């Protein structure tokens, strides 16, 4: 067994104090997201973990890309027939997680998920590179397939079929809006006394509190 007891670092790059935060968590998210965007060490600032609960009661986590955020919440796109889509159909709650280690920051978002409007899914689908559009059509996401060649052959056929025409968006492909009801901002601090500020939705307002690390 490898001993990992000494695999640790000192967190001392920033702080998170009540007098400096926004009262709305989406505005606080925007500030941190823009700071992360400006960091050259982060290659995909919009990469986030999405955890859903499957029918057997076990959570499943995967990385996806955030594609938009508004005052309502956070938007990502997927195949509705995938494992995550079926889990969301069974249980509309999910947890989103951003981790930017070079900034020593995490954001944990508990949210209720709902499908975005059809026109939004349509617009985003056709804004993607054609190869990505075809990939969404080709892949029966999360289903068992015989081999990789199965996908590659289907892709070749569709490339010919849609060589000079628009690729139609599959009805089972689209976006989700994650509407948050709790957002925690975590800032690493020395001596493991990290800053944890949590926003909890209370009616139409957000209650702000500090959690012990």
UniProtKB/TrEMBL annotation:
A GO MF term: FMN binding
Binding site for substrate: 8-11, 67, 124, 128, 132, 192-194
E.C. code: 1.4.3.5
Every Pyridoxine 5'-phosphate oxidase dimerisation C-terminal domain range: 173-213
Binding site for FMN: 62-67, 77-78, 83-84, 106, 141-142, 186, 196
Transmembrane segment boundaries: none
Catalysed reactions listed for this entry: pyridoxamine 5'-phosphate + O2 + H2O = pyridoxal 5'-phosphate + H2O2 + NH4(+); pyridoxine 5'-phosphate + O2 = pyridoxal 5'-phosphate + H2O2
Alphabetical list of Gene3D superfamilies matching this protein: Electron Transport, Fmn-binding Protein, Chain A
Listed SUPFAM superfamilies: FMN-binding split barrel
Pathway(s): Cofactor metabolism; pyridoxal 5'-phosphate salvage; pyridoxal 5'-phosphate from pyridoxamine 5'-phosphate: step 1/1; Cofactor metabolism; pyridoxal 5'-phosphate salvage; pyridoxal 5'-phosphate from pyridoxine 5'-phosphate: step 1/1
This protein's UniProt keywords: Flavoprotein, FMN, Oxidoreductase, Pyridoxine biosynthesis
Top-rank taxon, per record: Bacteria
One of the GO biological process terms: pyridoxine biosynthetic process
Cofactor note: Binds 1 FMN per subunit.
Cofactor: FMN
Domain Pyridoxamine 5'-phosphate oxidase N-terminal: 42-156
InterPro entries referenced in this protein's UniProt entry, alphabetically: Pyridox_Oxase, Pyridox_Oxase_CS, Pyridox_Oxase_N, Pyridoxamine_oxidase_dimer_C, Split_barrel_FMN-bd
PROSITE patterns listed in its UniProt record: PYRIDOX_OXIDASE
Protein task: Catalyzes the oxidation of either pyridoxine 5'-phosphate (PNP) or pyridoxamine 5'-phosphate (PMP) into pyridoxal 5'-phosphate (PLP).
Subunit-level organization: Homodimer.
Family note: Belongs to the pyridoxamine 5'-phosphate oxidase family.
Record's protein name: Pyridoxine/pyridoxamine 5'-phosphate oxidase
Species this chain originates from: Chryseobacterium pennae
Encoding gene, per UniProt annotation: pdxH
């Amino acid at each position: 067994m490898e001993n990992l007891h000494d695999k640790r670092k000192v967190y001392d790059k920033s702080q998170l104090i009540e007098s400096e935060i926004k009262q709305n968590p989406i505005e606080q998210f925007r500030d941190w997201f823009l700071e992360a965007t400006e960091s050259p060490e982060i290659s995909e600032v919009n990469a986030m973990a999405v955890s859903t609960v499957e029918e057997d009661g076990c959570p499943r986590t995967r990385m996806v890309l955030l594609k938009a955020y508004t005052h309502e919440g956070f938007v990502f796109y997927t195949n509705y027939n995938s494992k995550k889509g079926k889990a969301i159909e069974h249980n509309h709650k999910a947890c989103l997680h951003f981790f930017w280690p070079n900034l020593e920051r995490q954001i944990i978002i508990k949210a209720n998920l709902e499908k975005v409007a059809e026109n939004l899914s349509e617009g985003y689908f056709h804004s993607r590179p054609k190869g990505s559009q075809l990939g969404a059509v080709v892949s029966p996401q999360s289903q068992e397939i015989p081999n990789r060649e199965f996908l590659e052959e289907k892709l070749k056929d569709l490339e010919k079929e849609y060589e000079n025409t628009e690729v139609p968006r599959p009805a089972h492909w689209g976006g989700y809006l994650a509407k948050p009801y709790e957002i925690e901002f975590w800032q690493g601090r020395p001596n493991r006394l990290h800053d944890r500020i949590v926003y909890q939705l209370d009616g139409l307002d957000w209650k702000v509190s500090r959690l012990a690390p």
